Structures are given as C-alpha cells and as structure tokens.
Amino acid sequence: MGVSELDHAVCRENVLKPMDAEQLREHAHKMVDFIADYYKTIEDFPVLSQVEPGYLRKLLPDSAPDKPESLQSVLDDVQAKILPGVTHWQSPNYFAYFPSNSSVAGFLGEMLSAGINMVGFSWITSPAATELETIVLDWLGKTLKLPEEFLSAGQGGGVIQGTASEAVLVVLLAARDRVLRRVGKNALEKLVVYSSDQAHSALQKACQIAGIHPENCRVLKADSSTNYALNPDTLNQAISRDISIGLLPFFLSATVGTTSSTAVDPLLALGKVAKCNGIWFHVDAAYAGSACICPENRHYIDGVEEADSFNMNAHKWFLTNFDCSPLWVKDRNALIQSLSTNPEFLKNKASQANMVVDYKDWQIPLGRRFRSLKLWMVLRLYGLENLQSYIRNHINLAKYFEGLVLEDKRFEVVTPRTFSLVCFRLLPPDNTEDGGNKLNQDLLDAVNSSGKIFISHTVLSGKYILRFAIGAPLTEEAHVTAAWKVFQDEASALLRSL
Amino acid sequence: MGVSELDHAVCRENVLKPMDAEQLREHAHKMVDFIADYYKTIEDFPVLSQVEPGYLRKLLPDSAPDKPESLQSVLDDVQAKILPGVTHWQSPNYFAYFPSNSSVAGFLGEMLSAGINMVGFSWITSPAATELETIVLDWLGKTLKLPEEFLSAGQGGGVIQGTASEAVLVVLLAARDRVLRRVGKNALEKLVVYSSDQAHSALQKACQIAGIHPENCRVLKADSSTNYALNPDTLNQAISRDISIGLLPFFLSATVGTTSSTAVDPLLALGKVAKCNGIWFHVDAAYAGSACICPENRHYIDGVEEADSFNMNAHKWFLTNFDCSPLWVKDRNALIQSLSTNPEFLKNKASQANMVVDYKDWQIPLGRRFRSLKLWMVLRLYGLENLQSYIRNHINLAKYFEGLVLEDKRFEVVTPRTFSLVCFRLLPPDNTEDGGNKLNQDLLDAVNSSGKIFISHTVLSGKYILRFAIGAPLTEEAHVTAAWKVFQDEASALLRSL
User: Fold this and answer.
1) In sequence order, which residues have a C-beta less than 8 Å from that of residue A63 and are 6 or more positions away?
2) pLDDT of A3 above 80
3) Is the CATH number 3.40.710.10 carried by domain A24-49+86-102+384-498?
4) Which residues in chain A have their CB less than 8 angstroms from residue B100's CB?
5) Is the pLDDT of residue A2 over 60?
6) Which CATH architecture has domain B119-369?
7) Topology of domain B380-497, per CATH?
8) pLDDT tens-digit readout, A42-73
9) Chain B residues with CB inside 8 Å of A14's CB?
10) Which ipTM was obtained for this model?
11) Which of A169, A225, A278, A403 could form a disulfide with B3 if both were Cys (CB 3.0 to 4.6 A apart)?
12) Which positions are tagged coiled coil (chains A, B) (predicted)?
C-alpha cells in the first residue's frame, strides 16, 4: 500500500478528538460549578461515609460502555453514587487522622498541572518543572529556617515526594547504600534502624522494602515520662548494645509531631548521638513541619542542623492539595547514587553535561507531575503572614477544645496538647475491667456513625485514646463547639446505658 | 486562661479563609479559560523548551512573599516565565519518548479528584475511591480480555499505581518475599532476575531498591534476529546455568512494546519457561497495553494467562492524564504480605473484619489520590469504540510516516513498525567512520532545536536511531506530513554541510 492510499485510509476514519480547547472550556466550566456546589453543600453529607462494603458494585454496570455517554450523566452518577461513598476530608467537621488540606490555590495548581500534563522526569522534559521545584523548596526551606546545607546552592537541596512514606524510603535507601558501599553488600543483614515506638508505620514499611531484617529494626519504647518522645539515652544504649554484638547502626528516624499524639523527639540530643555513630539522621515532620513556619513554633525543629534529611507534608496542614511531600537532604549525591539509572533513551545533552537536576534520580518512580505549581500558588496567593495565621488559628481552636474537655470532669486530656491535636478519653466508671477501652471505642463508633463528625483513635500505653485533630480548611469555632456537644451527648447516652 | 477568653482570642484574629466556594468558582473559571487558551495556542510554542539551565532563578524572587498576590499576577507569571520553560507534551508536534495523553475527560477527572481531595489509603477513608478503582480495573481487564484470575472476583485484582516503575517494584518485592519466606531471608544474595536488554530501566531501579545484587540481574541480549524480542531459549539457558551454580531464579519481566523499538517479547513461550521454574512472571505493557483493546492487536498479549502480573500505563496512550498505571495481579495476597502494615491509628472495623480492600497494602506509599475517577471518565465519556478508533488512527498515522520514510532513499527504517513508533535513521555517506551515529545525533539536535517538533532517540545494536512516536491527542495527518518535511529539510542541510 503506497503513501497516498494510507493517507486516504487515515482521512476516511471518523476519529475521536479528545482534546478540543472549546470542549475543554465548556465541560471544565461545568465541572468548576459542580465542585463549587460540592463545597457549598459539604456539611449536608455524613462526614464519614456510611455505605456498606460492596455498595458501589450494585450501582454500576459490569463493563465499560461501547458508546460515549454525556458529561451530565456522569455528573449525575457522581452525585448519586460516588459522593455517598466519599468520606469528606474537606468537611469542617472532619477531625480524623491528620488533615489533608485543599484550598483554592492548591486546587488551581492541580488544575494547571493537569492542564499542562507534562512528565518531568528529566530537566529537558520541562525545565520549568524542575527549576520551579528547586526554587520553591528553597523558599520553603528558608521559611522554615533550615540550615543552608539543605538548600540547593550547596551539596543538598529539596525535592517533592508524593508522600512521607516515599520520603523516608528514599533516604533509607541512600543511607543503606552509603554504608554498604563501605562495608560490602553482604552486610545487609547487619544493618540496624532506630526509632521510637511512636514513629509512623511508613518507617517499618520502608525497612520491609529495603530488605532490612525485621529483627534489626529497633522500635524503642517511649512513654508518658517523656510525653512519648524518644529518650536519647535509650537510643545511645541501644546503639552501644548493637555495636557490641557486631551489628551496624546506620539509620535513625526522629519525629516532630508523632501520629498518635504529636510528640516531639529531641532533635538536637538525638542528632548528636547519631553523628557520633555515623548514622544517617532523618527527621519526619510530616504533620508538624507546617507549624514551624511560625516563629513561636520554630523551636520544635531546633537541632535539625544535625539531620541529614528533613521532610514535611505540604498536603497535610499547608493548604496544598494531596500529594506534595517536600524532602530536603544535605547530600543529594547519596540519593542519586542509590536511585539513578541512565538508559540510552533518556540521555540528553543537558543531563550528560551534568548542568541540570534530573529529579528522576531523587525518587522511586521515573515519571513525575508538575507538583511545585500548587505549592508555588499557595505561597503566592496566600503569602506567609496569612499562612502563619492559618496555623495559629487551628492551634487556638485546639486550645479551645482542650479547655472544653478539661471543664467536663467526665473526660480527661491524656497527653499535653502541643499543636492542633487533642488526645482525650471518657473516664470509665470505677472498676471497669479494661480501664475504659471499650467505652471509648463505643464512643468513637457512636460519634462517627452519627455522621456529624469524624474522628480517629490511637492507643497509648495500653489506653484507647480519642484523637481530635483540627486542621480542615473550613473548620471554624462553631464546628468545634458543635463537635464537643456531640461528644458530650453521646457520652451521656453511653454512660446511662452502662 | 478559661474557655471564654480563648474563645475571644480565636474570634479576634483575622483568619485566612482558604476554601471559599464562591472564590473557588470565580478563580477556577479563570483557570479554565487560561488552560483552554493554552490549548488553542499550543502550536505557537517551541515543542521542546529552548531555555538555558538556570533560566527561572533569574526571573523569580529569592523568597516566598509575606503578603498575598493576585491570581492575575500569578497567571501573568505562568504565561511569561513558566510556559517558555515547558516542553509541550500535549503539542500535536510532540513525537518524543512515548506520549503522555491529556484529554478533556482525563482533565475533568483530575479536577474532580483534586476537588474532593480525599486520601484513600483504607476503604473507610472513602469507600467510593477503593470500590470504583476495583470496578474500573475489572472493566479495563475485561476489555483487554485478561484471564479471570486477574479480576477481583477471585484471588487477584487490579490496583492503580502511579507509574510502571512502581508497578514493577511492588511485584518484584512480592516475588522476592515469597521466595525468601520459603528459603530464608539470608538467601537474598542468591536471587536472580531476568529480562532482555531492551527492558525498561525501571526494572534495574526496582532491583536496586529491593536489594537484588547487580551481578544477579540477567540482562539477556536481544538483537535484530528476533526484532529485539527476548528468545525463550536464551532465557532457558540462563536459568539452567544459574540453577547449576546454586542461584535462585525468581523473577522474569517481559515487555510488550519495549521503549526503544516497541519489540514484543513472546509471552506464551517465556511464561512456560517461567512456570517450569517457579518464577514470578511480570508483563510490562506500559506503552502497548492500550493498543490491545483493539481485537486486531490483542494477540500481542497472547500468553498473558501465564503471567503473575500485568501492567499498562493509562496515562501514556489511553487519554488518562498522568499519573495512572493499572496493575493486575493473580495473587493479591503476595502483594499484601510484602507491603502491609497495620498500625493502631489506622485500625477500623471494616479493615479488621477483612471485609474490604485497603489499597495502602498494594503500593509503596500510604496515601493515595482518587485516580480511578479519571479512568472512569475516559471510559464513559469516550466509550470503547471511540478509544479503539483513537488507537487505530495513531497506528495508521505511523504507517503513513513509515511509508514516507521508505520513499526517501536517503533514510532507512531500522526495525519493522509494530504500533505507533517508527525507528529510522538517515543513511550516512559511504565510509563514515561511526556508521552515521554523529550524523543522526546532529539531525536530532537540528529538528529539536528548530522548536517545530520534538523527538527522542535510542541505540540499537550500536546504531544511533531516531524514534518518531505518534500518540499525542492533537496530532493529525498534517502534523505528521509537516514533521517529515522538517526531517527532510534538516537532512538536506546536514548532508550539504558534510
């Protein structure tokens, strides 16, 4: 078949035009209104979805359609079938886990990133994506007063990971390979990782992935005597013991704002222990890092100058839509040595001449979205002063809630509040066998199944604890007041029924 | 300080309201118009950004602003400072690497996902996100005629990974841990991985991460005698050799549509070798998987019934904005055994009762976006018939381009075209020392720096090859014709200058 015949074959076919600018305009305007209306009505939904497992399979067909359907029919299905199965993280009555902030600026950044839809694995595939990321992470690093070694002018720099899980994994790999290059790769089974028992499960998962032997993961006990922070003496003793039996301590992860109770590990003292022992020191400030943009909170990361890597989640409490997890390292080459590949099909002059950053070598995946746009938009459209007041407002609301709990003698605040999380519980009647754990679990179930608020829980020193985490962008004082009334009413009902 | 005082303190502060539904509506409508206008003018930009390394640092301030700025000032900066640094993957004149499709439907799905902004790590955190993902991956699995074991009704199922890199990593980990549970974890150094030398670098990176020893990664030679497909005999011999020296073969990755030349490994024969030897068999159809929704192309994945896992990128050639990389496995428990954690703060009744899927245990990160929305929208707003015609159109355009190359005797087509990639090169004058490699590199530089089109390259059997990959959603026949004229003109100029 000659060229001209093929030519005709191409022309004859009635071909889908999936990216028509005017159709995009028309349909996306509709979607904007749909989303804006969602936010207007968000308080009408139960915060925690009340559907049963398997609900959606009964509502959708068994296979994809052969013919196109209209946008309206899809939006109708979103309203009728999808939204009832959504747990509304952006509801002002969402107080579970930690927040995952949306904002107008973050949303606009997501839109623009999806609009440009480029894949920024190497500098050449969109120089702006790489360079804006470097610049904005320098901005944020300066705002947090991170030491200069974490900024891009030296040997370090920042990179946006998807999540804190990926952040701790990439630095664990960098640390693993750094020590294995020195002692030989068959020493993997001797490598030891340290953290408190309050560290996030992401560390355990990173160890599983990296092949660290589970029996070499030192999960050091932290208790109420230190408000669940890791004691540097405990760390020091564990390291000495491991060295004495021929093991190789190589990685410490400390947390600023633990998931259970926002405990703050003492970075300076821990960092000195790590440094003495040649251990990579990672700081996980996934939640509380955002708070440290306020001068009055900056002291919580004092000692970060001892760290090799520092991570916070802009998608938690910094108004940047999920996902956006900035990570800073002092030695970018350690990351690159673990994570780089250099296949022929990706070679290009700028990369080969070592003139540019190729972020593919700082992360697990190859492809990457233009995530710095949304962080840049948040910083510019709000400005640091507003962002500081945003954080302070949530901390004040948490103080207010803590005060409410303290005034009701049926409850106790379990650990001192540090940021915007209040850990509390309903006190059980005397001689309750399990110390009130079932009572509090029942209280959690009752408030969550009311649909009025959504909270989550933890266990500290064997006690089942309710976590009230303030940080959704729409939460105002009235929501906190109303939430407290839900707790009081459900507690009264439960106590009556005993 | 009592509750009432705190109350006042909260009220007094002038607090940012970052998620106001009417501001979202107003600003997002502006952003829609900005993006629609971008698509209207996309052909006015050089496809490959022509900026110099470091260009953006000169244009932006050194630190984040204290005060808020207007959306208009940010959009002005996007136009003046960001877009010149963008390489326009959605341009109809983009023919590099593989495509990364945007579409109206994919874009709407991204918008909605960013609007809801929930984090679906466990079923309870948004049942709809988990359930829609399972359903849509069953739809797509049926469309591809994957064996039933890959669907969710049995022991297997689908999950959306961010990228093919993460897909191959999670199955490599599952396979690693499955064999180590059997033979003991100190056997890591004996594990052997197999692929052809045409496999994507993501496999090498996954091995680095998983701690597979580099000398145990068998990169088996594939050459023009098999059109760069892996020969099952070569595999068989390598496995036998490794077993004879006490090593443990455990993982094979085959590719349907290799990155360099879209070679297709013979799945059926390779799968039988894998099965005989108890090896996990992964199929990477990142690029070409999409083409297999057309009945006439389905045979390229014949033999997938022998595989343990199968992956394609919906974000490449399936109109689903980046990132969206569906992975199917036959044994979901193998994934879960490698990747699950179960911290107290994530426990909930549905998960504890084992009634639901928690996708956090099928992937590297904990958090995850509502990515199934965009794939669902693509399938519904276009329908399978349109999606098939979309694929066929690109394949026809590639045939057309191949015909153009074949008609110009100064060029050669290097490998037979299979899908929508044409591998070709300019023939050098006789007795050119390097066989024409520099000539073709110069041709690539010339066409790319013209800004008119963007292509990339590879090396096959020592020859530098130009890759012309058709698949951008806006590409029409006229763009292909014009692109060919760019090659011809630049080739004439180069040959004249010799």
Assistant:
1) B139, B142, B143
2) no
3) no
4) 117-119, 367
5) no
6) 3-Layer(aba) Sandwich (3.40)
7) Aspartate Aminotransferase, domain 1 (3.90.1150)
8) 999 999 999 999 999 999 999 999 999 999 99
9) 389
10) 0.97
11) A403
12) none
